Amino acid sequence: MKNKAERYQKAVNIVEIMEQSSFAQIMQKGLAIHELNQKFNRSFPQEFQDLFRIGRINGDTLFIEVANAIVRQGMLFRQSDLLTLIQQDYPQVKRLNLKISPEFNRVMP
């Protein structure tokens, strides 16, 4: 009983525990990807809006899913500008991996 009572009397900083949890880390990554999506959307013409989304960052590669080949070619054409934009927040990113996803158009509103 003594150990149980001591355990409940120990001071715990719940904020610190939450910040270090795996859920908090997932949320931080999700928010960062959302912000990056918004930056990308602002840097492209209206025709490209909502036709791509940032997937994830793995090492030095940023994965981007696009709706069709036109969007992919537009991004490849502006690849160096996009990498400069990305590297402001993620200096480790050196490459873009653009994948055409046929289901993308059906999922988007």
Automatic annotation (TrEMBL):
Q: InterPro entries per the record?
A: DciA-like
Top-rank taxon:
Bacteria
Protein name, entry field: DUF721 domain-containing protein
Which species?
Rodentibacter caecimuris
